[in-house]
Specification:
The complex is a heterodimer of chains A (144) and B (129). Chain A is an alpha+beta fold and 144 residues long. Chain A has one domain (6-143). Chain A is 30% helix and 13% strand. Chain A contains five helices and five strands, in the order H-E-E-H-H-H-H-E-E-E. Chain A has helices spanning 6-16, 45-53, 60-66, 88-99, 102-105; strands at 24-28, 39-43, 115-119, 134-135, 142-143. In chain A, the strands form two sheets. Chain A has a three-stranded antiparallel β-sheet. A two-stranded antiparallel ribbon of chain A has the order 4-5. In chain A, strand 4 and strand 5 (142-143) form a beta hairpin. The longest helix of chain A has 12 residues, at 88-99. The model of chain A has no long low-confidence stretch (mean pLDDT 94). In chain B, 5% of the residues lie in helices and 40% in strands. A four-stranded antiparallel β-sheet of chain B has the order 4-3-9-7, with no helix packed on it. A three-stranded antiparallel β-sheet of chain B has the order 5-6-8, with no helix packed on it. The model of chain B has no long low-confidence stretch (mean pLDDT 84). The chains are: A alpha+beta (144), B mainly beta (129).
């Protein structure tokens, strides 16, 4: 039995899975842009529901290989056999590798903490100084 | 999952090619709250948003597009204030590190200053990879 295209699986999954808002956020800084504020990655609730349910998302290594495939050339991830269910923690790690540059989560060799998975409660709701946010190196929490 | 293979779709009177429907369908959409700790209210084919700065949000797709020539569009509202109560969503195709998998949207007030909006509604049409 064919597993079809990823977009078809996502559309079908949305009809039967309740969205799940993550209790985590991923803080990260781009070492290539030292003046830029810290970024905050927010998982999509329908994507997370698919990750937790399994049999929808492709293996993460297909995305990593597709990063080297030029536009217009056939990609691997839409047609790859889907992976099984993940825990939320595994899903966040998958999402880091998928949606954040490898230069941040894999290749950075410096001493600063440039990426941190944190509970959503640690992200300030007051955005008055949003463009000055950095990862606090002493406390390893976000700070303006 | 079952698949229907058909070249055309008809209601008995009007007939269109299946490709007309498939290619014209929206491939991704999202309803985003940029205020407080940002959140995606609902979506299709979106894996995450990245809060890059005030008003600047990166949207990343689960099923990538074939190239960067997809068409995305949106609207936003809910900021209020003396400089206008609606933001808008200019596409930063040249400076937003647009890829076949992600791009940035930037919301601003009528005075052009970036702002976080309560309702950022976004959709994308194009050819999937």
């Amino acid at each position: 039995m064919t597993h079809g295209h990823l977009w078809d699986r996502l559309s079908e999954a949305k009809t039967r899975l309740d969205p799940v808002q993550s209790k985590y956020r991923v803080l990260f800084e781009n070492p290539a842009e030292p003046e830029a504020p810290a970024a905050v990655l927010v998982p999509d609730p329908n994507w997370l529901a698919a990750a937790l349910a399994g049999d929808v998302l492709p293996p993460i290594d297909t995305y990593l290989r597709d990063q080297n495939v030029p536009d217009g050339e056939p990609k691997e991830h839409p047609y790859a056999k889907p992976v099984g269910a993940m825990t939320e923690e595994q899903a966040i790690e998958y999402l880091v590798m998928k949606d954040i540059s490898p230069s941040i989560w894999r290749d950075y060799k410096g001493n600063r903490t440039i990426m941190k998975i944190v509970p959503v409660e640690l992200i300030p709701s007051d955005r008055s100084f949003r463009n000055a946010w950095k990862i606090n190196q002493a406390e390893e929490e976000i700070a303006a | 999952m079952s698949t229907i293979n058909a070249a055309n779709i008809t209601d008995g009177t009007d007939t269109v090619a299946t490709g007309y429907v498939v290619n014209g369908s929206i491939k991704a959409w999202s309803n985003i709250n940029q205020t407080n700790t940002q959140v995606i209210r609902d979506s299709l084919n979106t894996s995450s948003l990245t809060d890059d700065a005030v008003g600047n949000t990166r949207i990343t797709y689960t099923s990538a597009f074939n190239n960067t020539n997809y068409c995305h569009f949106g609207t936003s509202s809910g900021t209020g204030g003396a400089n206008g109560d609606h933001g808008f969503v200019p596409h930063a195709s040249g400076s937003g590190n647009t890829t076949s998998q992600s791009h940035q949207v930037r919301c601003a007030r009528h005075d052009a200053n970036r702002t976080d909006v309560e309702f950022l509604m976004h959709g994308t049409i194009g050819d999937l990879a």
